[in-house]
Specification:
Number of helices: 29
Number of strands: 24
Strand content: 5-15%
Low-confidence stretches: 71-81
Length: 724
């Protein structure tokens, strides 16, 4: 049918600000193909960030920071308990968190944005790091207006524990949600809500992809329902499907999502279109099996979920996203030519609304369809990431061959399995087609653990495939984990050794920690994997992760954790936000190829020319305030960040240095004497002269350490950066 239903689709905070996500564009493009009018797509995540340092946002922030207690005169939660913390306790945490923060610097964040969007300065890793730290520093200050420490690395939410474990009480606590959303409330009030009210929208949708977006989705829904009471309010996305799947009681779902008229569980193209169809004729969208209506509309018969036919999905149109706002110099789009996983055996996996397997049913477009789509997308964006669980090797190869035949010019990457299929010649074909990097889950370097996972790979074969990829100039990004049930310390160390021994074959990577999820084969058959007493976390009403008893991996945990730390940050450093599928990682792979790691490491090594290079301290020492209790509270916060527990406290003898990216270092008093030299720009040669009291070899080691830990950085005059 053809309709003119006015719809707005919103992508909420808090998530990657370097590119737009693809979920809303997929459902909007499908609806348009069915005759519906285009929706207005609003990326509230990136808009809220930019508004925060606008004149209006800055004026609000200055009022907040100058108010007694730092909560602002109209801060929410007048005495109510906020997740176990009263208003006074939160304000105390806010004042403690600000001890190490500089004053808000809107000029610096503007310069940082310009560097991240600049096609040349972006690839100067020194400028790049300075810019990223400028954004993080701004978000740190902004975050103290909510719950102190809620923003990590700028755009990651460190939510209170009760929210993280899925407590119904926390997820329905309006005071807690208001406080978490407070940094963005001026944007909501001044920009988003007036825009929605003026738009006279009949349908307003919020796409909730990640768990850390949920608190913002819930608060936005409350505000939108108050502002636009006649709009049909919906939400969907991976996180909403997880809520439905993981709730201990399905009634909890709409207790949490109480302000929504309907939710979409599972894939959303046809569900969203049927919602528009229903609204157009004034009925309820009760016929689609993926649509769940709020119980206030009456009981609903639940039918088996519908999985989309990919042949009916049109090429997504990304033109509606605010591309001039993202913190990147290039356009980067996500493209999904498959759904589910063709392997679909890994015993730890629990992804999507699976039935009897670890993932959703496997479907994949043909190579011809993929080429048709990327030919269209490449006219709009230079970088295309295949946002899929995995792509079948033969299809990828056919796709690459057709791309070469048609002489298409774009860059791409994907998550793949390191099959022995990938010979040197086939990898060379991938590279010629524009593939710059692949992401792979190698999982473990131990064969017994791989067999328990049912991964279907062998470490020697994985290494051979890595060699073929790296030899073709394709960056290999490695993902794995330790702590799999019954994994011994020796077996876990094999994973660490595998990464270390093959360091020249991969670019970025890391080892996470195993988590047991309810839908995994391991949880369904615990005896087979040697685990007992499988249980939910206390007070968890949305059970995403399970606890269990298993003595072997538990006994190895401390030793393995210490060994993983020995890999040190250099092994895990990567462009901002860290994930293997984020735009900046691919931009840097495209510019520097498989030597990208060396380019980044060079910024943390001392150079021959550095004796005459100006350096400056890359952070500040946190000075004790007159309030002794406030100082004690801050030291406890730092101790928690360093894993010392909530009762731990940094000794008074240690000096606390807060780096520009919010990492706090506990240093001895002698370190401070030398770091204080860099309170203003100074060359290493001049610093050496001021350190006459120690041998030059000692000073040299100090400078090397300061540079490698980025406690000092090469000074770049702001006048040399983009103008405001």
């Amino acid at each position: 049918m053809t309709s003119t239903v006015r719809a707005a689709l919103i992508y909420p905070p808090l998530t990657d600000p370097t590119s737009g996500y693809h979920s809303l564009n997929y459902i909007d493009s499908y609806a348009r193909a069915q005759g519906h009018a285009p929706a207005d797509i609003i990326d509230a995540n990136i808009e809220a960030f930019h508004y925060s340092y606008s004149p209006g946002g800055l004026a609000w922030l200055e009022r907040e920071l100058s108010a007694p207690g730092g909560g602002g005169p109209d801060a929410s939660g007048s005495g109510a308990a906020l997740n176990g913390l009263g208003r006074a306790a939160l304000d105390g945490l806010g004042r403690a968190a600000r001890l190490g923060l500089a004053d808000p610097d809107p000029d610096r964040v503007r310069r940082s944005v310009q560097v991240l969007q600049d096609p040349e300065l972006f690839y100067d890793y020194g400028h790049y790091q300075d810019a990223v730290e400028g954004v993080i520093a701004w978000m740190d200050v902004l975050g103290t207006t909510g719950i102190p420490g809620q923003f990590r690395a700028g755009f990651r939410l460190q939510s209170p524990p009760a929210l993280s474990i899925g407590s119904l009480a926390a997820l329905t606590d309006h005071d807690l949600l208001a406080r978490l959303n407070r940094p963005f409330q001026p944007y909501y009030t001044d920009v988003l809500l007036p825009r929605l009210a003026a738009g006279n929208y009949q349908v307003i949708g919020i796409s909730t992809t990640y768990q850390w977006q949920l608190p913002f989705t819930l608060w936005l829904a409350r505000l939108i329902k108050q502002t636009c009471p006649d709009a049909f309010l919906i939400t969907g996305g991976t996180e909403i499907s997880d809520l439905w799947k993981c709730a201990t009681d399905r009634r909890h779902v709409f207790e949490i999502l109480t302000d929504f008229d309907a939710i979409v569980v599972g894939e959303g193209e046809t569900a969203y279109t049927e919602i528009l169809d229903a609204v157009a004729v004034g009925t309820l969208p009760a016929g689609h099996p993926n649509v769940r209506l709020h119980p206030r509309f009456g009981a609903q018969r639940l039918l088996p979920l519908r999985y989309e036919r990919l042949a009916q999905i049109p090429t997504p149109d990304f033109s509606g996203l605010p591309w001039d706002l993202y913190l990147s110099p290039e356009r980067f789009v996500y493209y999904a030519p498959s759904r589910g996983c063709y392997w679909n055996k890994c015993t730890f996996c629990d992804y999507g609304l699976n039935t009897d397997g670890p993932t959703s049913p496997w479907r994949q477009d043909t190579a011809d369809t993929m080429v048709r789509d990327v030919a269209q997308l490449s006219k709009f964006a230079k970088f295309i990431y295949f946002s899929v669980d995995v792509l079948a090797p033969a299809t990828i190869l056919r796709f690459a061959e057709k791309v070469i035949e048609q002489d298409l010019d774009f860059r791409w990457g994907a998550e793949i399995r390191l099959e022995k299929y990938w010979s040197d010649q086939r990898c060379a074909t991938l590279r010629r087609s524009g593939c710059v990097a692949v992401s792979v889950g190698f999982e473990s370097g131990n064969q017994r653990v791989l067999d328990l996972i049912d991964k279907g790979t062998r470490p020697a074969q994985v290494r051979q495939t890595m060699q073929a990829m790296a030899g073709a100039g394709i960056g290999v990004q490695m993902m794995g984990f330790t702590g799999f049930p019954t994994e011994t310390s020796a077996e876990a160390l094999e994973s660490i050794d595998f990464l270390v021994d093959n360091r020249d074959l991969w670019t970025f990577g890391g080892l996470g920690e195993f988590k047991l999820t309810p839908g995994a084969i391991i949880a369904k058959d615990p005896d087979r994997f040697g685990i007992t007493n499988v249980r939910s976390l206390p007070e968890s009403d949305v059970v995403r992760v399970l606890d269990y008893d298993e003595p072997i991996s538990a006994a190895a945990r401390d030793e393995v954790t210490a060994a993983k730390r020995q890999l040190d940050g250099a092994h895990y450093q990567r462009p901002w936000l860290g994930s293997t599928d984020t735009p900046h990682s691919f931009f840097y792979h495209d510019r520097y190829g498989t030597s990208v790691r060396e380019v980044m490491d060079a910024e943390r090594r001392r150079r021959r020319s550095d004796d005459e290079q100006l350096f400056i301290a890359n952070g500040t020492f946190v000075e004790p305030p007159e309030d002794a209790e406030l100082w004690r509270l801050y030291r406890r916060m730092v101790a928690m960040q360093h894993g010392l527990g909530s009762d731990g406290e940094v000794p008074l003898s240690r000096q606390l240095f807060r780096r520009a990216d919010a990492e706090v270092f506990t240093l001895n008093r002698s370190s401070r004497l030398f770091l204080d030299i860099f309170g203003e720009p100074v060359t290493l040669a001049a610093a050496q002269q001021r350190s006459w009291m120690v041998p030059s070899t000692v000073a040299d080691r100090l400078w090397d350490t300061f540079i490698s830990q980025r406690l000092i950085r090469r000074y770049r005059d702001p006048a040399d950066r983009p103008s405001q």
